[in-house]
Write a structure and sequence with these properties.
Shape: globular
Mean pLDDT: 85
Helix content: 10-25%
Distance between the termini: 59 Å
Radius of gyration: 26 Å
Structural class: alpha+beta
Number of helices: 11
Largest sheet: 7 strands, antiparallel
Strand content: 25-35%
Number of strands: 32
């Protein structure tokens, strides 16, 4: 374990970067799990697994006290989260025992240490609880996650320190520059050369076990001589490259393994937040892993206000002015009501740029800072085909497909697409491989093949384009095929929330439009596309004789920003969309 030296030895939080440099461990994942299992009791009835649950009356009284503290320290509140905040999203924690109030199965370290003692009844209960869990990619940020987003927006929260790797804080919309992710994020990869971060909607860390291993063998000897950003002995190549202009860098996943260096930027940000905090609130952490736990504990040790919300006892309890024994949602939801601040609903937000010029239409994902974002799974362009049915073609297993899976497929293998992922309850695609065997596969490991699929009845067709071109990761199609103009494009995503495709009108020639589209997992619907910027002619819908002629006016505006004598003229268009 890494221990923070006495605070008196650090003149400022920036000194932490020198203190926490460590050699990267070469332990395997299995070794790491065995080591962590040794940090919890091997006795399933041990006191450390006991949950101390406050009565509803006590919880209500303590929430009132917490609300007063939050008001008192407005702008100086720092929250420290552990795995407990995500149990409400269906992600199990690490250290809970059997029959936890969270409704989740026993924590991973507890399972590894005690499962040999479980009787048949306990095993059956654990199996039932396991069926309630969800993967990190499909988990929806909880009301507590969204409450933290709104508290930061309202300038109540100074910042957030998290030990979690599940990516829910970033996905919830929490401001990245106010977030310290101490142990990384399975969806986040970064450039080891320039430091640019890329938040993905797939598990970025998978690549290190596939193409990343090959890159380490080929490149690490030369790269190890460079001054890179936390390269961790080259064990974290993902197989992807940096999209920043003129940067030659390779991407590393950000997940921290046992013995890895901690990310300097995030560890420094965490200690800086702890130093500035007037109030620190621990949500769902036992505060037992250093150096992360030193951050909230240092607040209580210094005499500042520290509040702990956790079911089990924690190492921070003795330093806290208030402890609440409840689940995180049981505290955060009524706390927000007491503060008079509504909790926003989570929406999956996408930014898509659509351009038409030189006889081609290009579509690409864009991050909020303008960086190319690998959002799209496939682009389907329509040419004289006006049915609502999306035509299926073929897929190819990509770099993250492992040759050791049960279906025996390898990167480069092709399959026929039988079912779109949004058509299935589990969000996986149905495919048929060359042998005739059929499987359900995550879209993350599939690339849609670039090909034309023709409808035999209408002789119209579509072009599927799953490939991405250049540093901007553009999906590019011709604007005309066999004399037929492209009438619309359908955007398909990786469907972790079973989000259906989005239809956009074919852009006008010489135009470029940036859209934002939001998906509500609870409603299962996309909102109307919002145009963030537009240059050139407006897209106009056309209706062929084979289509219904009912039209619905959509009252959203396209703002065309054109500079003229350093002034911006706004032109507003009323667009129409077929239903």
């Amino acid at each position: 374990m890494i221990r923070r030296p006495p605070r008196s030895t650090l003149s400022s939080s920036s000194a932490a970067s020198d203190v926490y440099k460590r050699q990267v461990s070469t332990q395997s994942t299995g070794d790491c799990e065995r080591d962590m299992a040794h940090t919890v009791s091997a006795d399933k009835s041990d006191e450390e697994y006991r949950e101390y649950v406050d009565s509803p009356e006590d919880v209500a009284n303590k929430i009132s006290q917490l609300a007063e503290l939050v008001q008192k320290h407005r702008g100086k509140v720092v929250v420290y989260t552990g795995a407990g905040i995500s149990t409400g999203a269906g992600i199990p924690d690490f250290r809970s025992g059997l029959n936890s109030k969270t409704g989740m199965p026993a924590g991973k370290w507890c399972q590894n240490a005690t499962s040999g003692q479980w009787d048949s009844k306990e095993k059956k209960e654990e199996e039932a609880r396991q069926r309630r869990t969800t993967s990190c990619l499909q988990a929806i940020p909880t009301q507590s996650h969204m409450a933290l987003v709104e508290l930061q927006r309202q300038n109540v929260l100074l910042g957030l320190i998290s030990q979690n790797c599940d990516g829910l804080h970033r996905r919830s919309g929490f401001a990245p520059d106010h977030l310290a992710e101490l142990h990384g994020n399975t969806n986040l990869e970064y450039c080891g050369w320039c430091g640019k971060e890329y938040m993905r909607d797939f598990r970025a860390s998978t690549g290190r076990r596939t193409q990343g291993r090959e890159l380490r063998q080929k490149l690490w000897r030369a790269h190890s001589k460079l001054e890179l950003i936390n390269p961790r002995k080259g064990n974290h190549y993902t197989g992807r490259r940096c999209q920043c202009q003129d940067c030659p860098g390779y991407l590393f996943d950000s997940t921290i393994d046992f013995g890895d260096n901690l990310p300097t930027v995030h560890i420094n940000r965490g200690f800086s937040l702890a130093d500035q905090a007037g109030l620190c609130i621990v949500l769902g952490s036992r505060c037992s892993v250093s150096p992360a736990c030193d951050m909230p504990i240092s607040v209580g040790e210094s005499g500042r206000d520290l509040v702990v919300v956790n079911l089990q006892k924690t190492s921070a309890d003795k330093h806290a002015c208030l402890r609440i024994g409840a689940t995180i949602d049981e505290v955060m939801v009524p706390l927000m009501a007491a503060l008079g601040i509504p909790i926003p609903e989570f929406a999956l937000s996408r930014q898509i740029a659509v351009t038409r010029k030189d006889g081609a239409i290009s579509v690409r994902g864009v991050d909020v800072d303008g960086t190319p974002n690998d959002l799209l799974w496939n682009l389907q362009a329509r040419y004289g085909y006006n049915s609502d049915e999306l035509l299926k073609g073929h897929v190819e297993f990509n770099q993250d497909a492992s040759g050791n899976t049960a279906n025996g497929t390898r990167p480069g293998d092709r399959a026929r697409l039988l079912e779109w992922p949004w058509e299935k309850e589990d969000g996986r695609a149905g495919v048929e491989v060359a042998s005739g065997a059929r499987y359900c596969v995550s879209p993350d490991t599939l690339a849609v093949c670039d090909e034309v699929v023709v409808d035999c009845k209408t002789r119209g067709g579509v072009r599927n384009v799953g490939s991405r071109t250049g540093r901007d990761l553009e999906h590019v199609v011709l604007d005309e095929f066999e004399g037929k103009q492209c009438s619309a494009v359908w955007l398909m995503f990786r469907c972790h929330y079973r989000e259906p495709p989005v239809r956009l009108a074919a852009p006008a020639d010489g135009s470029e439009t940036l859209y934002r589209i939001d998906y509500s997992p609870s409603a299962g619907t996309w909102g109307e596309p919002v145009v963030l910027s537009h240059d050139g002619p407006a897209p106009m819908e056309t209706v062929s004789s084979s289509e219904p002629t009912r039209l619905l006016s959509i009252s959203y505006a396209v703002f065309c920003l054109k500079k003229k004598k350093k002034k911006k003229n706004l032109r507003i268009y009323l667009l129409y969309k077929k239903i």
